[in-house]
Amino acid sequence: MSATTPGYAEAPDLPAILPVPRQRGRIAGFIYRHPAIFLGGLILLLMILIAIFAPYLGTRDPTALAPARRLRQPSAQYWFGSDMLGRDVYSRVMYGARVSLVVGFAVAFCASVVGAFIGLLSGFFRALDAVIMRIMDGLMSIPPILLAIALMALTRASVQNVIIAISVAEFPRVSRLVRGVVLSLREQPYVEAAIASGTRVPAIIWKHILPNTLAPLMVQATFICASAMITEAILSFIGAGTPPIIPSWGNIMAEGRALWQVKPYIVFFPAIFLSVTVLAVNLLGDGLRDALDPRLAKRL
């Protein structure tokens, strides 16, 4: 029937509504509200790229000895100078990023997984809570660096053993954090309803409890990563960490401490890289904490 037929009103022409892309605005808004995440993530990404492309960024083999060129000042030939064995400090610092980042990320992952598992068991099963938490309290009573030194004294120096030793020192704190979250979650009505309906315990933990522990667990993992990199540097500095043949920031500083007053660059450059990397991880952790906290987070 024609639109001009009496009794029928002609539909007005509506302007076409075209979707406006807002992705860039949302990203810019997120960066504006959380600059710590952007700055920390950018610096950390740069350090990761340095670690990945260290063979292409280094000017020499970091383990090549050149006694005739020992203790050279920073120059166009040796950007960061050379150490007492004639090795290029710049190349060693580039390769040292690999050890620190691998140890930091590996410890954060291992400590988070083990600590989350223990915390879930302790918080959900009250019969196990007292026993597990007393063991965790005993481990937490020992300073992490002393516990890591003691564990390294029982094993040979290697990157794998450093990761294990630091992880053992860190996961009790993760378990306490996760346990506290689980204790509050298991009293929630939706968890009690799932228990009353006969839902199996593994399904309750996996669907209702574990997802709510991921936000604080992610923030804690960033701080563990930063702490692990510092601990690894301390262990290497005192000779209880990675083998001297493997270039790491702690090893480089340990080799240059005897010449600190006359050749400070040997210690200065790896210390700067370590400080900047730890600062980046801490900035990322602070930003994530603010972004994931429901009391502080804002809608994009």
Q: In oligomeric terms, what are we looking at?
A: single chain
Uncertain regions spanning at least 5 consecutive residues: 14-20
Q: In percent, how helical is the residue content?
A: 55-70%
* Shape call: elongated
The string of secondary-structure elements, in order, is HHHHHHHHHHH
Spatial separation of the terminal alpha carbons: 48 Å
The radius of gyration is 27 Å
Structural class by secondary-structure content: mainly alpha
Average pLDDT, rounded to a whole number, is 81
CATH homologous superfamily - what is it?
A: MetI-like
The CATH C-level class name: Mainly Alpha
Notable characteristics:
mainly alpha, 11 helices, 67% helix
Explain this structure.
- By secondary structure, this protein is mostly helical.
- It has one domain: MetI-like (MetI-like fold), CATH 1.10.3720.10.
- Helix 4 runs antiparallel to helix 5, helix 4 packs parallel to helix 7 and helix 5 packs across helix 7.
- The longest helix has 37 residues.
- About 2% of the residues have low confidence.
Task: Compile the SSE list and pairings.
Elements: H1 23-33, H2 35-52, H3 54-57, H4 89-124, H5 126-140, H6 144-153, H7 159-185, H8 189-196, H9 201-237, H10 249-256, H11 265-292
Helix pairs in contact: 1-2, 2-4, 2-11, 4-5, 4-7, 4-9, 4-11, 5-7, 6-7, 7-9, 8-9, 9-10, 9-11, 10-11
